[in-house]
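Bumping with the actual sequence this time:
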Amino acid sequence: MMHETLRSFLPRLAALPGEVCFYGEDLATGEVCEYQADVPVIAASVIKLPILAEAFRQAEAGEASMEETFRIKPEQKMPSCGALSYLHDGVQVTLRDLCVLMIILSDNTATNILIDRLGMESINQTINRLGLKDTVLRRRLFDAAASARGIENTITAREMGLLLKKLYRGEAVSPQADGEMLRILKNQRLNGKMPFFLHGVPIAHKTGEDDGITHDVGIVYAPHPLILCFTSQRTDVPAFERLIQDAAEAFARA
């Protein structure tokens, strides 16, 4: 069934410029379908998903505490997505708050604080432990100097699907931690892509955007729960986002 649905969208996928990628899996039947699923693309905010996993791993291992507090300094505030950059200097939040804000509002200030607290090397070690080879955290967000040198964080559609499947099965950190991470992902506030036509269908997902880049990866809790991962770069963003909306509805209703 998933293959039939994908076939109906292949002409639209093939017509898009740049790299457009898809990985889908029916979690009830194990059926998998894909399109360029192993092509590494610039991660944008989807890199926040493995950062979340490392935060929960460290909390469970006693290397960090979800109740640890952070006072937000002016120099830590990052542009664009999120809430912390708009709040008063010195506002105090917990590590758990940072995790929630990083995911549901894609807060870039929260993300960089978490990268600094958890350690880039530790995050990448957990990425490797989870079996992800082309997913790499190479720099903090909004590091213009690193970006100018071509240093970018990367993901693939398949590897985000693998991470989501581990969360679904309780195999990423632990059943309890993975369940809490999925609850955070279900509270996502940025819902203009996969959830657009799926009113009332819970979706645990994370988006990402930048120039020529748009992603949405997650678990759609349809009658047959589905992993759907859409990633891209150098593409026509409005056209691909409309395809994501249409395809997510078709897969969920199939």
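The tokens above came from a reply further down the thread. The CA atoms of residues 57 and 174 lie 8 Å apart.
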